[in-house]
Amino acid sequence: MADKKKDTATKKASKKDATPKATLPPSGFRVAVREILRSKSALTALIIIILILLLTFGGSLFLNRAQITEMNIVDAYYGWGQGGHLLGTDDGGRDILKLLIMGGRNSIMIGISVTVITEIVGLVVGLVSGYYGGVVDVIIMRIVDFIQILPQMPIIIVLTTVIPNYNAVTLVFLIAMFGWTTTARYYRSFILSQRDRDYVLASKTSGSSNFQIMFREVLPNITSMIIIDVVLTIAGNIGIETSLSYLGYGLPTTTPSLGTLIGFADDPVNVINRPWLWLPATILLLVISLSINYVGRALQRAGDARQREN
């Protein structure tokens, strides 16, 4: 009898072990890493972005800003590698490589700063609009529509000319003043698809407040979308700053920027005879934009895969 009981217990234990165990889907971070490692182009782009950040932010730590912008007419228009200047000098004798490092850092910093502001404002507005819906959604979206139909670039150009003590911080807020609307509409579309899900209805039934549901329940479910939007928005904001600086309405002339360096291409003589003035900044901007785009595509695939696995 004892042997039979042991055999029965052994069989039950083996059946329990054979029963497949439920596994949780991988985290959003693991899915993103997996997608980037799968794509050689995305992985290469990520490495390039890291190297650019090390060059611009790390290299700027060893540079003196006052010396970089200091004029030295004697060294004006040195070509590639002449006079100890690897990328030559501009019309004021300033080293192009140093201007490129500082300009790249400034443009990237502005792109990141604008993105932080627009993401925070747009996320909150999109959450409120999509979650409550109805009259609240209609009012908020009409405000968003009104701001989006305004001519962004002309308004920023006018404001840069009339605002006293104009600086980089002012430029960040001017760009963010319009940029949050696109972000708000983007997040609103995802919140509308989440507001009637079972977990939201269950939270309402359990007595959770709307604030808790929005930021504790709904927000974690769109984190992959947030990451994707942040990455792609940074590239767009860098482009906006560069365009404004190229036109002469971005950063002050005393502050290096990719746009001010590319602005040397306005002169046909520089385009043909002095390519070192504008070509390095143009290549750097192109590389940054393409690299962020490839990484953003990989993150988008990761977000889609995460949604399917959930």
UniProtKB/TrEMBL annotation:
Q: Which organism is it from?
A: Lactobacillus gallinarum
Annotated Basic and acidic residues bias: 1-19
UniProt-listed PANTHER family: D,D-DIPEPTIDE TRANSPORT SYSTEM PERMEASE PROTEIN DDPC-RELATED, OLIGOPEPTIDE TRANSPORT SYSTEM PERMEASE PROTEIN APPC
Q: Where is this region: Disordered?
A: 1-23
Q: Which GO terms describe its cellular component?
A: plasma membrane
The listed locations are:
Cell membrane
Pfam families registered for this protein in UniProt: BPD_transp_1
Highest taxon in the source lineage: Bacteria
> How does the protein's chain sit in the membrane according to the entry?
Multi-pass membrane protein
> What protein does this entry describe?
Peptide ABC transporter permease
Is Transmembrane helix among the key words of this record? yes
In terms of InterPro entries, this protein maps to:
BP-dependent_transpt_permease, MetI-like, MetI-like_sf
